[in-house]
UniProtKB/TrEMBL annotation:
N6-(pyridoxal phosphate)lysine, modified sites: K210
The keyword Transferase belongs to this UniProt entry's keyword annotation: yes
Name of the molecule in the record: Histidinol-phosphate aminotransferase
Lineage start: Bacteria, Pseudomonadati, Pseudomonadota, Gammaproteobacteria, Cellvibrionales
Top EC group: transferase
Pathway membership: Amino-acid biosynthesis; L-histidine biosynthesis; L-histidine from 5-phospho-alpha-D-ribose 1-diphosphate: step 7/9
EC numbers for this chain: 2.6.1.9
Alphabetic keyword roster: Amino-acid biosynthesis, Aminotransferase, Histidine biosynthesis, Pyridoxal phosphate, Transferase
Amino acid sequence: MSRFWSKITHALTPYVPGEQPQHAQLVKLNTNECPYPPSPRVMDTIQAISDDSLRRYPDPSSVALREAIAATRGLGIENVFVGNGSDEVLAHAFQGLLAHEEPLLFPDITYSFYPVWCQLYGLTSRTIPLAEDFSLALDEYRAGRGAVIIPNPNAPTGMALPLTSIRQLLDQNPDAVVVIDEAYVDYGAESAAALVPEYENLLVVQTLSKSRALAGLRVGFALGNPALIQGLTRVKDSFNSYPLDAVAQAAARAAVEDVDYFDECRQQVMATRTSLSEVLLELGFDVLPSQANFVFARHPEHDAAKLFAGLRQQGVIVRHWNKPRIDQYLRISIGTEAQTQRLLEVLTQLL
Ligand code: PMP
């Protein structure tokens, strides 16, 4: 069949997502979902959706949702773009904002979707190795008239840069678009959203998939200068002019407005992260300093692939990559207290 494909599609190496087994008994700690349900206001909103709002096309510009997001950041609606998960927002950014005469820079250990989008949209890129301790070699990110994208915190290490470092990155790249992918920013890291009014070349991308427990709803957003937001909107309108369905727009708005519930969930996740890290250290693991809703850890005496397989056999799913430098690490999402207990029970048996 391959002769029917174009050469480009045939050569693509697609992104491989973490597995999504539909088995309720599993302790699923492999894709950094929130272990708690979404805000009760989200569930109420979905139940109250009118038949009219399903019969009609949704608002193509997601105005009410964008206003709600803007209000939480002290920004205007013209600073906000929304899409089906931050993956779609990022894909639009790769396609419309990050292709320049000089390469796009990103770390060599990072979100593995970035090289896929480069391939898909024909972008030239240059990866910059993380330092020995997995920190970002900030001085090396000088893109000239190109572009930069980094996740903060980085994935899958969970390590975050402070706002002063993001400022340095922006100051040393005045002519490049700088994208900060903040999928995991709500667990202790500082958001670059505060810098949006100051830097016209900054795009901050966030998601409702993690800290708002809405991975299944598919809502993400970008914050930036109106010129960048207009660029994304042009890509959207050339691709799918109704990015978010009516249910997603209404439910996402309810989630964004329930700030108390959001705070409660993320505080709980951070508390569990601290206690999990302490026990992992006691068990002899090296644990990277995480500011995300997962930890990245290795045991100097136990092979990570074997630990991964042993956990899996007992119904505990974490993430492991057969990639240079990180093949001895496990990435473990922060679960509920009970899931964390189960994880530690099985790990203790395996060691
Ligand atoms: N950025 C990073 C760094 C991620 O790990 C993820 C989750 N896989 C995303 C973006 C995309 O998340 P979503 O599309 O669910 O918003």
